[in-house]
Design goal:
Blueprint (H helix, E strand, L loop, with lengths): L10 H10 L7 H35 L5 H21 L3 H20 L2
Helix pairs in contact: 2-3, 2-4, 3-4
């Protein structure tokens, strides 16, 4: 054991490091296409959930439900609409978290019904 402790001469680790460098993201056109697809997905999902939340809020307003229920659906729809805007601008990770939060607010409103 005369070698340095941080040196690694194991052939298995050299192979795994070489395999990790070949992840297929060398093509810029493929990366741009993936980013465009992620933006469209985030924007489309946010818009669809915002419309569903608004429709649910309007339906709950016409029926006898506590005022908190349509407010929760409307608030969740607003959060999902903000996620759609962020997703269309390329902030897909933040848009995903806002979509999750918006759906959770709408589900919370559904629990009060």
């Amino acid at each position: 054991m005369s070698g340095r402790p941080d040196s690694d001469t194991d052939p298995e680790s050299a192979d795994s490091e070489a395999a990790a460098g070949q992840d297929g993201t060398d093509d810029p056109a493929e990366t741009e296409e993936d980013a465009r697809r992620a933006r469209w997905t985030a924007a489309g999902t946010g818009a669809a959930l915002a419309l569903a939340g608004l429709a649910a809020a309007l339906l709950r307003l016409t029926r006898s439900a506590p005022a908190l229920v349509p407010a929760a659906y409307g608030g969740g729809a607003a959060v999902c609409a903000a996620a759609a805007v962020l997703g269309s601008r390329g902030r897909t990770r933040r848009a995903l978290w806002l979509l999750i939060a918006g759906v959770m607010v709408m589900a919370l409103g559904d629990q009060f019904d």
